[in-house]
Amino acid sequence: MTAISHVIAVFVLTGAACTAAIVPLKADRPIEPLTCELHLIESRGQVHITAEAKAQVATKGTYRLEIDRRSSAGRASIHQGGEFELRAGERAILGETSLSGRKRDLTASLSVSSDGKTHRCGSAAL
């Protein structure tokens, strides 16, 4: 029996975190350089949002964090973005903010671009 390569993609939404990882289809393909997470933590009427990235290999690129909050008082939109550079094995916070309200009032998404590719690393509509 021969070993067969499998596609493994992870997208986990467990109420507080959204995680995505890009894994190659075949063992002979290069490893994707990034994994990322979008954490939403609700406490005392506030939601703290943190966007993180971890490099499998040294890489640099850009990120975009978009957050929309809807409530009876109206709508708020936050857009954060910028450049990053990570060493192999390094984890970094790309952006973070806190908003009043509840997780269910938020929609948040994170995307990263590196080596000419853009990956939507996480999205949460809570």
Taken as a percent bin, the fraction of beta residues is over 45%
Shape: elongated
Q: Report, as a whole number of angstroms, the end-to-end distance.
A: 44 Å
Q: What is the total domain count? A: 1
Number of helices: 0
**What would you say the CATH architecture is?**
Sandwich
| Protein structure class | mainly beta
How much is the radius of gyration in Å? 16 Å
What proportion of the residues is helical, as a percent range? under 10%
Looking at the structure, the CATH topology is: Immunoglobulin-like
Describe the secondary-structure layout.
Layout: E1 10-13, E2 17-21, E3 34-43, E4 46-55, E5 59-71, E6 74-86, E7 91-100, E8 106-114, E9 117-125
Antiparallel strand pairs: 1-2, 2-3, 3-4, 4-7, 5-6, 5-8, 8-9
Structural summary, described in words:
This protein is an all-beta fold. It has one domain (10-125): Immunoglobulin-like, CATH 2.60.40. Helix content is 0%, strand content 66%. The chain has no helices and nine strands. The strands form two sheets. A five-stranded antiparallel sheet has the order 1-2-3-4-7, with no helix packed on it. A four-stranded antiparallel sheet has the order 6-5-8-9, with no helix packed on it. Strand 3 (34-43) and strand 4 form a beta hairpin. The radius of gyration is 16 Å and the shape is elongated. The chain starts with 9 loop residues before the first strand and ends with a strand.
